[in-house]
Amino acid sequence: MEAYCVKCKAKQEMADANEVEMNGKGGVKRKAMKGKCPVCATAMFRILGKA
């Protein structure tokens, strides 16, 4: 899964990516991916679509 790294200021392929659920508005659960940047090891986060 590709995500934007804030520290590198570029899109990177996420390492150790895991799908997580987060709370959205109105108590709705939203899916997201959480992982690390392979270049600088900074935490990366990407919110997934509803589909």
Would you give an account of this structure?
It contains no helices and five strands. The chain is mainly beta and about 50 residues long. A three-stranded antiparallel beta sheet has the order 3-4-5, with no helix packed on it. A two-stranded antiparallel ribbon has the order 1-2. Strand 4 (about 30-35) and strand 5 (about 45) form a beta hairpin. The two termini are about 15 Å apart.
Number of domains: 1
- Taken as a percent bin, the fraction of beta residues is over 45%
> Number of helix segments?
0
Tally of DSSP β-strands: 5
Low-confidence stretches: none
Write the SSE topology.
Layout: E1 2-5, E2 10-13, E3 15-23, E4 29-36, E5 43-47
Key traits:
mainly beta, 3-stranded antiparallel β-sheet, elongated
Can I get a quick summary?
It contains no helices and five strands.
